Amino acid sequence: MIQIKHLTKTYGAKRALDGLDLTLGAGVTGLLGPNGAGKTTLLRCLATTLAPDGGTVSAFGLDPADRVQRTALRRRLGYLPQSPGAYPHFTAFDLVDYVAILKELTDREHRHAEVRRVLAEVHLTDQARTKVRKLSGGMRQRLALAQALLGEPDLLILDEPTVGLDPEQRMAFRALVSRLGESRVVVLSTHQTEDVAALCERVVVMRDGRAVFDGTPGELAAVADGRVWLSDAPPATSELFWRTTDGRYRTLGAPPPAADAVAPGVEDGYLMLLGEAA
Amino acid sequence: MSDWHIPDDLRERYLEGRLEPALAMSVDAHLGRCAGCRAAVPYDEDWLEASWARLETELITPRPGLAERLLRHQGVPDHLARLLTATPTLSRAWLAAVVAVLAFAVLAARAQADLLPAFLVVAPTLPLAGIALAYGPRVDPAHELVAATPMSGPRLLLTRATAVLAVAVVLAGLASPLLPAPPGLSAAWLLPALAAAAGCLALSNRLPVPVAALAVGGVWLAVVGAGGLAAGWPAVFGPAPQIAYGAAALLLTYRFHKVSTR
């Protein structure tokens, strides 16, 4: 459905995307990677807000480089930017209503019904008349998510959607996104490996503008197979270890003395893959 | 609670609206506290759902502002009125145009004849200032979010620019009679203003809007200002140049439209 070929984007001397190739289909795909890996640049190219320097993107057979096809693609996408910005004096309802107009929902009754629907989806109906400046960070993030859901888009692009959400809200978000991913293409970037493990069928790890891993969360965890250990004493050599809440040391890499092997998680695989760059 | 329930014949007469008001009110009161009798009253599910939806919208929809209500009253479609009045950057653009033109009017009334050439040269750049403030990542805090919608780009820019231009033209037009010159000459800024705005829009296909506005404004001030000083003001605002400004406005608008819809 979405084909990305040899995509490049450069900011000055920095190559944000370096000949990236990727194909995305229905379901939830998570992008993981350290800061500066190119996740946001990729999502902006997909969302048609940034033109790549080279390569092509084709979404549902539409080419965003062509103005007419770009507009057609925008009719089918919902986008939550990393920094959505906001008009603080708007009410929550006004903000979503405004974006709904920009999404060409011109009939007032239909538009308002859609605004009500998406506000209910993110549990903000009770805050509909509250000014944006009075909403908490988590509520603003949910409001930004609400506008992305307008018009039931075929392609949903979410850049760090769980930032600012408390654990309960994150659970609700996961339920919502996994439901949406049943029938559409959802791409999200995150630093939270738990989110990837919980709701993504596929994970792409990026580094320096390239995809260095593409597979299921289970396959990412398997990268650290046989290399995760728990020990009572800190390792003498490994640099990838930390003290857990039960006072033991979790080590990635060579086993410390008297260590127990443990099953790896997505985070272990990610850390193993990227090492200190993570 | 009573064991009494509404008999079938009474319910039938109630539904047909054949009960005396006092008896109908008694039935209403009973329905309010008896779920069993309520369940026996048929209702139109679609109608009920639509009514609840309308009620909910009424409760959570903020009242439109004065400007939006005025535009709607003048026949502007609901969504367009909202689009024009809700954009913070556009409000600022309008404010910039209002302040600049009113300042001109006050200065004109005070300084009299010497100010006419300056007014004619500067007035066409006022809409440019407004357009520069109407669209783009530097002036719109939610630009990234807006930019991914189908209305963004030239369509939104044109909508906002038209609104800015209309306000600037009307206000500058109101200021014109305050100037000590024949009406024809004091309104000679109008076609140049349209040409400058169209040039800015056409250039915005290649440059960010504020840069395009600065470029067009700079070229206008340099060329026309220098030309006016060298050859006299009628040479740059007379009938022949006016035809050229009008033709340029048409050509550039066509160019913008063509590129925007390509």
From TrEMBL, chain A:
InterPro entries named in the record: AAA+_ATPase, ABC_transporter-like_ATP-bd, ABC_transporter-like_CS, P-loop_NTPase
Superkingdom of the organism of origin: Bacteria
Gene Ontology MF term list: ATP binding; ATP hydrolysis activity
Protein's name in the database: ABC-type multidrug transport system, ATPase component
Family note: Belongs to the ABC transporter superfamily.
Domain ABC transporter residue range list: 2-233
Protein's organism: Nonomuraea wenchangensis
Keywords: ATP-binding, Nucleotide-binding, Transport
CDD domains, per database record: ABC_drug_resistance_like
This protein's record includes keyword ATP-binding: yes
UniProtKB/TrEMBL annotation, chain B:
Organism whose genome encodes this protein: Nonomuraea wenchangensis
Keywords: Membrane, Transcription, Transcription regulation, Transmembrane, Transmembrane helix
Protein's name according to its UniProt entry: Zinc-finger
Keyword match Transmembrane helix: yes
TM ranges: 90-109, 115-136, 157-179, 185-204, 211-233, 239-256
